[in-house]
Amino acid sequence: MFPHHREREQPIFSTRAHVFQIDPTTKRNWIPASKHAVTVSFFYDANRNVYRIISVGGTKAIINCTVTPSMTFTKTSQKFGQWADSRANTVYGLGFATEQQLHQFSEKFKEVKDAARLAREKSQDKELANTALNIAAPQSPPVMCVNGPEDKLFRSQSADITLSSEKERIKKMLSEGSICEMNLEAELFTLQDSNTKLVAALHEANANVEQWKKQLAAYQGETERLREQVADLEAHVGQGPSDLLKDELTQSLEELEALLKAKDEEIHILQSKKADYHEMEHDRDEAIRRLRELEMRNTELERRIQNTEQNLSNSLEDRDRMDTEIQRAIEILDIKIFDLNDLRQNMVKLVDK
After folding, report:
1. In sequence order, which residues have a C-beta less than 8 Å from that of residue 220 and are 6 or more positions away?
2. Which of 137, 144, 257, 307 suits 184 as a labelling partner, its CA being 20 to 30 A distant?
3. Tell me: the pLDDT tens digits for 36-92?
4. pLDDT digits (tens, 9 = 90+) for 126-167
5. How many angstroms separate the CA atoms of 26 and 24, rounded?
6. What residues have CB less than 8 Å from 92, skipping those under 6 apart?
7. Which of 34, 29, 82, 88 is nearest to 62 (CA)?
8. Coil, helix or strand at residue 13
9. Are 186 and 38 in contact (CB under 8 A)?
10. How far is it, in rounded angstroms, from Cα 313 to Cα 301?
11. Does the pTM of the predicted model rise above 0.70?
């Protein structure tokens, strides 16, 4: 059995940052690789003993960097750091929200780089040991085949081919599951950011609407009061010096009506924004539904992988059983050949007599 969690990379550290890449032309300016802050994660491949830095933006990977002992992460400011990837021929830059996040990422980078150095040293020691063993080991004798088990040997070779194809298919399915997990994580963080922004905008809009409603009621009360004053002046005061006061009140009334009209337009705008918020809320619900479907699909994929692993285990057991039968048949054939050889010698002796 090969458990699926050993066949794929495991995340060991994650943070959020704005990703940049150096301009390939000038080698001085930074080009944003993401519009918003995205998830940047360290992954560890236990099978290959390899560490990678991966960041997914939308449906594509904007960082896919294998950590080597020669890499160095440099802090260029309180919230910004960079490192060079010679394999991708580029320089990556990360902008963090806080200085603490930058410090945590820098410490994790040093830890992963040291682990990669130790892994490389162990790999080199293992290669030297294997080379020494290959030089010291004697050559194995050639395998002889007797007419009889050729068909079983052929079936054993075809079983090896089938097992290798099964392993390749399992690796492919596991890599698809890892990509689905990264896409799910990126989409989840995006939904959380959108939800936070929408809630803040809704609270601000509701607060502004309530404040403008109070101002509108105050302006309406002031308008009614001025209209009553104008009506009283028109009823009790004749022509003369009061005309100037009447004109001033009329002008104030017009200004208040213009202000009321402007506030009404602002209220309509806020109401339309509120409708847009409901539409965005519907989009968020749709995204959550898609996320759940992806989770169900990932669960189904893991179930299929487990079934495939069980089939692979059964195939290995069948192969071991077949090898045992072939060995037994070879032993029986050796005994028969020995008996035939003994019989031949006895017949030769009889003929000579």
Report:
1. 260
2. 307
3. 899 999 999 888 889 999 998 877 889 999 999 999 999 999 999 999 998 888 999
4. 766 665 555 444 444 444 444 444 444 444 455 556 666 666
5. 6
6. 19, 20, 21, 53, 63, 65, 82, 83, 84, 85
7. 34
8. strand
9. yes
10. 18
11. no
